[in-house]
Amino acid sequence: MEQDERILARISEMVEHERRLRTSLASGEIDGETEQQRLGRLERELDQCWDLLRQRRAKKEFGENPDEASVRPSSQVEGYLE
């Protein structure tokens, strides 16, 4: 459970970082290209965190060890259909 809380805290940090990036763009501190590059990296990492959290929850639900869940490559996570 503690690991899940750490993952959720990391997700919250990344969401706040995303908000700051958008504010920086609106105030002219960064340009649109820079924002898009940073947001792209951030979104991929967010997707990986959500995927890891879903894996852990599924393992718990089915009586498996959630600590056996692992971060999957962003190319794999990004390829999932919603």
Keyword list:
elongated; 82 residues; mainly alpha
Radius of gyration: 15 Å
What gap, in angstroms, lies between the N and C termini?
Answer: 26 Å
How many strand segments? 0
Give the H and E element order. HHH
Tell me the count of domains. 1
| Average pLDDT reading | 91
Strand content: under 5%
Helical amount among residues, as a percent range? over 70%
Tell the overall outline.
Answer: elongated
Structural class: mainly alpha
Question: In terms of per-residue confidence, which ranges show pLDDT below 50 for 5 or more consecutive residues?
Answer: none
How many H/I helical runs?
3
Please outline the major beta sheet.
none
What does this structure look like?
- Pfam families: DUF2630.
- This is DUF2630 family protein.
- Residues 61-82 are annotated as: Disordered.
- It contains three helices and no strands.
- 73% of the residues lie in helices and 0% in strands.
- The mean pLDDT is 91.
- It is mainly alpha-helical and 82 residues long.
- The chain has one domain.
- Helix 1 packs antiparallel against helix 2.
